[in-house]
Amino acid sequence: MNMTDTNQSETLLEDLGDDMIIDQHDVNEVSDVSSTRTRRDIPQMMRKIPVTLTLEVGSARISLEELMAIGPDSVLELDMLAGEPLVIKVNGTPIGRAEVVVAGENYGLKVIDLDGLNLDLMTA
To answer: Domain Flagellar motor switch protein FliN-like C-terminal: where (predicted)?
Structure first.
């Protein structure tokens, strides 16, 4: 606790008056326990935050004129080569590469590598 915090705590205690007695040691102890608990629980809380995982096939840069000409039978060439690993993104941020697989009746992804994800920060 720095001097500014100590001075603010002392001023607060003086403002409470004589009819309410609080030990400064108890105030510091509660603050320290609360701070420690918050730091310890943050990684656990972060694990429960929902994220959107997407697999990016590729992209194409076209003009508005070309966009207006697109119809039901149009084919647009993407910037990825056929058979090349696709980009895994979490909330729009690339974290690795994967292949498309069939998982039951749905498509799935088989992770090839993860290079933009640091899960070590979330272990506690």
So the answer is: 46-113
pLDDT of residue 33: 53
Q: Is residue 32 part of a domain?
A: no
What is the CATH number for 113? Answer: 2.30.330.10
Q: What are the start-end ranges of the H helices in the chain?
A: 3-16, 24-46, 64-68
For residue 63, CA distances in Å to 38, 56, 57, 68, 81 come to: 51, 21, 20, 9, 22
| Model confidence, pTM | 0.55
Confirm whether 21 is domain-assigned. no
Length of the chain: 124
Give me the number of domains the chain comprises: 1
Q: 89 and 56 in contact (C-beta within 8 Å)? A: yes
- pLDDT for res 122: 55
Q: List the structure tokens of 76.
A: 């647009």
